[in-house]
Design brief:
The protein is of the alpha/beta class and 444 residues long. It is built from 15 helices and 14 strands. The chain folds into two domains: 5-66 and 332-442, Aspartate Aminotransferase, domain 1 (Alpha-Beta Complex); 68-329, Aspartate Aminotransferase, domain 2 (3-Layer(aba) Sandwich).
Length: 444
């Protein structure tokens, strides 16, 4: 591909002071591309090249880069004398909580944090406190954060994971060194869309929580099969665990009420992030008062500690309020527009794959999509890992980047359309996909 010498110089300088040269290892890619500017749906790299972006910083840029209303809200906070006080309530956090609780009917209480990993850690701690049970079920192929309770079994190679187990659970494959065996003994990984395995674990261990993305979006998009989410709801009621929807990626993107609204299945707790604040660092945990009030329980022995110096910092909180007010405008008309753009890119990509006689499917939910080079929509990690052409996927993404379309250059990673994308962006992307597939076929 075209060289990225300026980007490489930035990385080399950073490596003198930062382990690996980058503060989140998930951002390290091959090729190494350092971006220096974003506007709307477009990015510019250190070499000065422009791209139509479908990465969106792992999807929080739901309204597009530098959205004017979000920028204005942040600027107002900076100029209005508001700052981090570290004492007392703030009107901004109350406004944000009001908007969420009043507009998402099942939510009665919400509290604001800084990152998705903080939110999932708090949700699991709360679930353990209210159920008095310590074991946690996670999904093979799901990602729920970096902390010890969930940092296992994401893109586990099948030769390490072993054959499909149903009913049953998988050997744990930690994502990090430093996770104590004692923590791992409380975790149980099962495949998505497998209710029998959830029951299997619940019959053998005191399960306090099951946490899952309602759509697995860290390995592309793997959708729940009909009845699956309701089945989880039923099992939670039967065995007495709390069902936690990790809506860090799905929340506010697929509907204002997240995928709980789309599916009609209500979890006990939901965690949000990314799209909630248009690129600013903010997350939230939300649910009914009977669970959430444990954060302020009168009995200290039942109270769940929730603290954070930067929780509800005025800058990201103002960004979140502005984002949510924009999403609610005109009865949520933005979601209809994004559905049209998503439908068009799904149609265009499907047609291009067929025109080139390439085996592939486009899986989409609203403004999120992915191309899988296989002959059907995957139902779980085993299905995806065993059938998707990963090398072809990566080659395809590199060809797109070379031609000014930025798909994150790691196979199966989800693509995201923002409110800033235009019909012209979509049509240009489809045309570039056509050229990219021609280029890919020429090298095979």
């Amino acid at each position: 591909m075209t060289g990225f010498s300026a980007s490489d110089r930035i990385l080399d300088r950073n490596r003198q002071y930062i382990p690996g040269g980058i503060s989140s290892i998930n951002r390290l890619t091959d090729p190494n591309i350092a971006f220096v500017r974003g506007e709307g749906s477009h990015l510019w790299d250190a070499e000065g090249r422009e791209y139509i972006d479908y990465h969106g910083a792992f999807a929080p840029q739901f309204l597009g880069y530098r959205h004017p209303e979000v920028q204005a809200a942040v600027q107002h906070v900076l100029e209005d004398g508001q700052d981090l006080w570290g004492s007392g309530p703030t009107e901004l956090e109350g406004r944000l909580a009001y908007l969420i609780c009043e507009k998402i009917p099942w939510i009665e209480r919400v509290t604001v944090l800084n990152s998705g990993s903080e939110a999932t850690a708090q949700a699991i701690r709360l679930a353990r406190a209210v159920t008095a049970k310590d074991h946690v079920i996670v999904m093979q192929g799901g990602y729920n954060g970096w902390h010890n309770d969930v940092a296992v079994n994401l893109m586990t190679p099948l030769d390490q994971l072993g054959p499909r187990r149903s009913p049953g659970e998988y050997p744990l494959a930690p994502l990090s060194a430093g996770i104590p065996a004692a923590h791992q003994s409380l975790l149980h990984a099962v495949n998505f869309n497998d209710l029998d395995s959830v029951r299997y674990v619940c019959e053998r261990y005191p399960v306090g929580a099951l946490i899952t993305e309602p759509i697995l979006q860290n390995i592309g998009l793997i959708k729940p099969q009909p009845g699956y989410l309701q089945g989880l709801r039923d099992l939670a009621d039967e065995f007495g665990f709390l069902l936690i929807f990790d809506e860090i990626k799905t929340g506010f993107r697929h509907a204002f009420g997240g995928y709980a609204e789309v599916s009609g299945v209500l979890p006990d707790l939901a965690v949000y992030g990314k799209a909630i604040a248009s690129g600013y660092p903010l997350a939230a945990i939300a649910g009914p008062a009977r669970w959430m009030e444990h954060y302020a329980h009168d009995d200290p022995s039942r109270r769940v500690l929730l603290a954070g110096t930067y929780n509800a910092h005025p800058v990201p909180t103002a960004a979140a309020v502005a984002t949510i007010e924009f999403l609610l405008r005109d009865g949520g008309a933005l979601y209809e527009r994004l559905e049209r753009l998503g439908s068009r890119i799904e149609q265009g990509l499907t047609e291009r794959l067929a025109a080139h006689d390439m085996q592939g499917v486009v899986v989409r939910q609203g403004s999120a999509f992915v191309v899988f080079f296989m002959d059907h929509h995957p139902v779980d990690w085993h299905d995806l890992a065993g059938n998707h052409d990963y090398e072809l996927d990566r080659t395809f993404r590199l060809a797109l980047i070379e031609d000014g379309i930025f798909f994150f250059p790691i196979a199966t990673k989800q693509c995201s359309i923002s409110a800033a994308h235009t019909e012209a962006d979509i049509e240009q992307t489809i045309a570039v996909v056509d050229r990219a597939l021609t280029s890919v076929l020429a090298t095979r």
